[in-house]
Amino acid sequence: MRVLRIFNNNVVLAATGEGGEVVVTGRGVGFQTKPGDVIDDAKIVKVFYPADGRDPDHLAEMLAFIPAEHIRLVIEAMGKAGLSAEQQGKITLVIALADHLSGAIRRAVEGTSISYPLKAEVQQLYGEEYQQAVRLVDILNQSISTAISPEEATAFTLHLVNASFTSGDLTYTYQMTGLIEQMIEIVAQGTDSSTLDEISIARFITHLRYLFVRIAQHRQLSGETSPVTTAIMEAYPEAVACARLLAELTELRLGEPLTEDEVSYLALHVARLHGNT
């Protein structure tokens, strides 16, 4: 790889042999180099391949504003905490976590704190990511002199969830969190909430999360009405009515109508939650 642009001693934009552009981090990777120089492989800590049409130049610039030590700590902690290779390779997630770490360390040193009112909802809706976030905080605290608050795990969780979407900020994730809660409340109306088993709820939440990803990426399930869709619509009329209400709510909150295929799968989950399948 050859240097295209130097942002600081630890972050450079580089050209690959295949003609692509990547962001390279590493202590001293940009020190005493100039555009066109071959990058010393021994200095490379991480190579990021920008996706989703993101501008690698802009991403590298954002990364350059974060202390190199915090970037290194986050990259190492992500690996130790068991995050997937895909998660570790997302530069936007590294930027978000490292930037948040910088703020958390500053708050810890100053003795200030920040309240996360969504903590209970985050723990319930995003259990897997929350456990990853808790591990991240524990691992990071082993490497810094002033430990950050365990409460920061809530914010880390939201960043992990947000990495599923194309949006670079947490707005969509906050919106999604509130929408999931509202949809569960609607499904629970008219039925004994104690009969809603946790496994079905977990499956429903997982389905909604993938649905919201499809909506954000404009890739909803669609096509000619399939036999499965027809069968669901005919077998569970009450669940279909509830699903259509959920679809109207989703369109109102996210601004995009659901396809018939998406409505039918919502209906199937509603039927399961109501104990009809």
TrEMBL record:
Keywords: Repeat, Transcription, Transcription regulation. One of its GO terms (molecular function) is RNA binding. SMART domains: CAT_RBD. InterPro entries: BglG_antiterminators, CAT_RNA-bd_dom, CAT_RNA-bd_dom_sf, PRD, PRD_sf. PROSITE patterns: PRD_2. Gene3D superfamilies: CAT RNA-binding domain, PRD domain. Residues 65-170, 171-277 form the PRD domain. GO terms for biological process: regulation of DNA-templated transcription. It holds the Pfam family CAT_RBD. It comes from the Bacteria. This is Transcriptional antiterminator, BglG family.
